[in-house]
Amino acid sequence: MMPPTPGRGAISNARSTRFNLPQREDDGDWLDERQAIDGKHPRPRTTVQMVRPKTIISYNSSPDIPFDRSINTMQGCEHGCVYCFARPTHAFHDLSPGLDFETRLFAKPDAAALLAWELAAPGYECRPIALGTNTDPYQPLERRFRIARACLELLAACRHPVTITTKSDRILADVDLLERMGADGLVAVAISLTSLDARIARTLEPRAPHPERRLAAVRRLADAGIPVHVSIAPVVPQITDHEIEVLVARAAEAGARGVFFLPIRLPHEVAPLFREWLDAHYPDRAAKVMATIRSIRGGRDNDPNFFSRMRGGGPWADLIRRRFDIACRRAGFACERWSLRTDLFVPPALPGTQMRLL
């Protein structure tokens, strides 16, 4: 097995054959040249490619997801979370869901312009848009490209509701927009926390901000009157599940309005990547971790079925859920779900189009 790459989550970079694509073989002469220059185990560099999609809003009809539309400003994620359920999407590009997913990234600089045209389309029905459902909109590249910021500026101007999911305190760069939208009931934020143990976080989600910085972001958002929740996701049995109670308590101390959790999911290529990660970082308990995950997932590495995929089943899932519920009661959390306004929406006026009379 390859040694872990410092600062990266995945261990290997095998390409997927799920779409009948042949497994590539790297040219031996090229590998010799690379090894001579970079050493035997070169660190992969992050590269960014611009993509120009025709639309930016993705629609879904999944019955266990609380939104029917979303925006992803980038593909791939430099945070490098080894458990990320979005990793298999890189196979669509004939790239690896492993290291490629966190090093070969795609940015969508036209996202805000595309969004304006879609919001202005005749017959558009306003419902909350979810930002950051597949890859994090506030990963390090956002500081350079400001794509999420441009989308939020448009949504704020149109008074369109949005939910944001991130594990980065970079969201605080947009607190001015979020504060105005929060006052009108147009935004809700979920900050993801997996572990407060810096050693675990450093390997599990290597390029995400420190957990304490994320909790500080929760406090800053809450103080600004912005509805903020904490997502304890994913819960990894035998690795992070012992922290459930303290994570809930710290979320309450930081001013979060609510918390929720999701057990780890290992779809498609994520399962073998996670197994490699376990063998590299937790060889003493790797078999036990996977046995527990399979017990939660009906005897498989992953359960893709609606509803159960978000909750899990069996004694282990029941125990985690019971502990979480008790921790929420102790912390004073109610079963609050965010509800955003849709009646304030004003479609954008596009250049060269006739403005509305009323």
Give a quick rundown of the structure.
This protein is of the alpha/beta class. 35% of the residues lie in helices and 13% in strands.
Write up this protein.
- It is a single chain.
- The chain is built from 13 helices and 10 strands.
- With 358 residues, the protein is of the alpha/beta class.
- The protein has a single domain, classed as pyruvate-formate lyase- activating enzyme (Alpha-Beta Horseshoe).
- Helix 9 links the parallel strand 9 and strand 10.
- Helix 3 packs parallel to helix 5 and helix 9 runs parallel beside helix 13.
- It is globular and about 65 Å long.
Key terms:
358 residues, alpha/beta, pyruvate-formate lyase- activating enzyme, 7-stranded mixed sheet, 13 helices, 10 strands, 35% helix
- Overall pLDDT level: 91
Q: Any idea of the CATH topology?
A: pyruvate-formate lyase- activating enzyme
Q: Which CATH architecture?
A: Alpha-Beta Horseshoe
Order of helices and strands: HEEEEHEHEHHEHEHHEHEHHHH
Given this structure, which CATH class is correct?
Alpha Beta
- Going across the biggest sheet, name each strand in turn: 2-3-6-7-8-9-10
Q: Give the structural class.
A: alpha/beta
C-alpha-based Rg, rounded = 21 Å
> In terms of quaternary structure, what is this?
single chain
- What summary fits the major beta sheet? 7 strands, mixed
How many strand segments?
A: 10
Distance between the termini: 65 Å
Low-confidence stretches: 24-35
The helix content, as a percent range, equals: 25-40%
